[in-house]
Amino acid sequence: MKTTAESIINKFAHENGFSDVGICSAEDFCGLRQSLVETQNTLSGFVEKDIEKRISPRLTMPCAKSIIVLAKSYNKNILVESDNRLRGYISIGAVGEDYHIFMQRKLGELSELLKNQFDAECMPFADTGPLVDRAVAIRSGIGYKGNNGTIITKNGGSAVFFGYIITNLSLKSGEKSTLHCSNCNKCVNSCPTGAINVGSFKIEKCISYITQQKRLLTVDEMKSIGLNLYGCDICQRVCKNNPKPFENITELDEIMPLLEEILNMSNSTFKSRLGTTAIGWRGAAVIKRNALAALGNTGRAESLALIEKYIKSENIMLRHTAVRAIINLGLESGQAMLESIYQYEEKNDIKEEIFASIWG
Length: 360
Description:
Elements: H1 5-15, E1 20-25, H2 33-38, H3 51-55, E2 66-73, E3 76-78, E4 89-90, H4 99-118, E5 122-125, H5 133-140, E6 143-145, E7 151-153, E8 160-167, H6 186-190, E9 196-197, E10 200-201, H7 207-211, H8 219-224, E11 228-230, H9 234-237, E12 247-249, H10 252-255, H11 259-264, H12 267-274, H13 284-296, H14 303-308, H15 316-329, H16 332-344, H17 348-358
Parallel strand pairs: 3-12, 4-11
Antiparallel strand pairs: 1-2, 2-8, 5-8, 6-7, 9-10
Helix pairs in contact: 1-4, 13-15, 15-16, 15-17, 16-17
């Protein structure tokens, strides 16, 4: 019996730990055009800006006929409890090897397999492709859109990473899922910033999105991220469609690192310890900025000593964040520190914020 490409794809997915696999045609996603035009000015810095490339797979691969979609669950049991030390929180999906690395490696292996077996042309993408990942996933039948903006898959639930391969192979497409979100609204009611509403998602309010921005955060954004250093899992943890995890997190520092350790890391230490995780690609400055913001949200006086190390930082983003963190703490002991900073700070916008917080 002749081995089909579809059977090889399914076998590969099963043997390599993927929770779900789907296939769809490489026809244009014309139904996305209007929504992409309407949201063009609100796009994150992580997506393709050319609308036509987002709609048409054949602008990426002219001979494209099919798209293979793979999903990997990242859901894990957290079997540790926080102590009373100053710690931040890392998204479950960012614990361990960066999924971009895993996905790119595995998609590359599958691509080579299909090339060798069927002389196929393949272009793999792991969160780096031009297409709208969620639209591709839905068309492939791998899942359906949940109210939390994620794709809820049959086996992996909503806590999954996606990757896809554009290929010139003519493959049998999956059927679109007939399931739909139950509208329990747990994610809507649990989102601390109100980013999630039934039928809409405000990415600019999403904590995960905010923690990944490479810029100075606003005061409101700093307050909104709470203790989150990278990402946010709240809408995933409450989703009843997520199956019981098979993996466990047993080390507290993996999921809730000490803020002092993050702030004391040199760039080389950051790269050696976190360079192969999802956190690594954002860089040390972004994570340190979030650590300073988190300290400002603790309400604890001992946070001041850690923040103080950055009030003269040459990195303006970190220096400004440190000042805002002191202001956010709202402690009397921080006021004297702010008065001292005001005397030597050269940046007018920082001085103005200090002035407004003390004498305004």
